[in-house]
Fold:
Amino acid sequence: MESIRFPLIAALAVIGFFMYQAWKADQVPPEPRSPSPIEQIAGDDDVPDLDASPTASSDAPQAESSTDESAPVEQVAPSTETIVVTTDVMRAFIDPQGGNLIRVELLDYPVEADSEEPLALLHQHNRRFFVVQTGLLGEGAPTHKVAYRSERRRYAMQDGQALDVPLTWTDGAGRQVTKIYRFEPGRYVIGLDYAVSNATEAPWAVSAYGQVWRTQADTEGGTPFVRQFDGATWYEQKPGETKYRFRKADFEKIEEEPLDVTQTGGWAGMMEHYFIAAVIPPAEQTVRLVTKPSSSTGYLAQLIGEKTEVAAGGSETLTQRLYIGPKLQKRMQDVAPGLQLSVDYGLLTPLSEPLFWIMDKVHSVVLNWGLTIILVTLAIKLAFFKLSEAQYRSMAKMRKFAPRIQSIKDRYGDDRQKMQQAMMDLYKKEGFNPFAGCWPMLVQFPVFIALYWVLLESVELRQAPFFLWIQDLSAPDPYFVLPVLFGISMYFQQKLSGQAMTMDPMQQKIMSAMPIGLAAFFTFFPSGLVLYWFVSNLVGIAQQWYIYRKLETEGLGRK
Structure:
């Protein structure tokens, strides 16, 4: 019975883990999809308090939230004055009314693997939107609602040169702000400068702020057992310390526990599975970080910078940066401290990060993520070879002593305590541990879950093709070929191990049903994960054959 108990527990643990992930994903109700790609939202979206600078007040602004899906949201026609900026990696749409980024299309990331339509990370739909709003706070300062002027409506990057997009606001009384977006080739970082000029006779105190405003994403049609986090994320300074920590909160938690802290540097934004939009202030600046429900609809992640006094007749430049794009691990760590942690592998981060690093190095050589998974699987199996040898040696001994074990069961069948004692005496006398066969599975289980997180969280593997019918390793096999091959390999692995010899008829039936049950369950898994487990089984079969041939010389092999 002990030979089957651990495999059953492990299988149930796998199933329970992914059932929990599916249950968590189902807790987010889908938002209705609007057919129009750029529909302006006319709502009373939040402007931070005029005294919200961390040098002025530490009190949180009180938001009268209303996230009821039935709340009326007026829909207006798209602006004909929208500014379109095209770079080598994105197409950005800026609304002169507020000077805000209302749509960003990621040119290297199509909506679907077989589509040429680029994914719109930022967008405006009726009741479903994801936008970045920026502006200045201060007496008479231009918030994200005022009108800006632009000399052009179309900008395109030329010859890999950085591209500046200036927008100008003036109050007609001597105050002027030029809001300058800076796009760089090959990067998803957008610089944002405010050139502030004060021609009046009085000083002007202003502070820059940025906020990401969005509603819940549409989760309809997602992959089963794939957890997709949607919500706010930020890099928070620990209270009373200089250290920081990566934090995140789904929309329900934002509703229940809004955040309001003052700290130095950091960043804040919103995530959508493989992608993130974040506001990044200067690292040395004191900022106020807020997450809360919007006063109209949706949720906000705000960063409010410290006040800067512009002297009468003087000028100052305030700076921010935005990151709007995929969560590319190698690039994000150079953008801002902690930004790469938005690729969240959970508790197994210490295992998942080096696993991805190894996979990335292998992929740079073979240029195919499917081959990368196969080669990394071979490396893992070789690393665990000694453990596998101990496992198969234990199985062989269990098979050798099966008649004696059955004799003990027949003799003490009505007295479980004596039966267990007699078996322990047998194990001690013959010098083997029946649980030795559990260790390789116990070690591989964290690797299995760590690879699950890598396949799930790494945008590098999004829509990554393998061969033939497998064109997206992050999605289930469309024809169920890999799950069937996995089930077949598991069946032959069981036969080769000969575990059935030590089981009663009921246990044999359970073990016989496991390949079918797990194969059916794996039809919902990312094909890259099933590929890993199938290759692992194939290598395990080869290792079993080799080790059993070796054990025959020791009198433990098949007779």
Notes: Residues 1-9, 25-44, 56-78 have pLDDT under 50 and may be disordered. The chain has two domains: 38-342, 368-552. The radius of gyration is 30 Å.
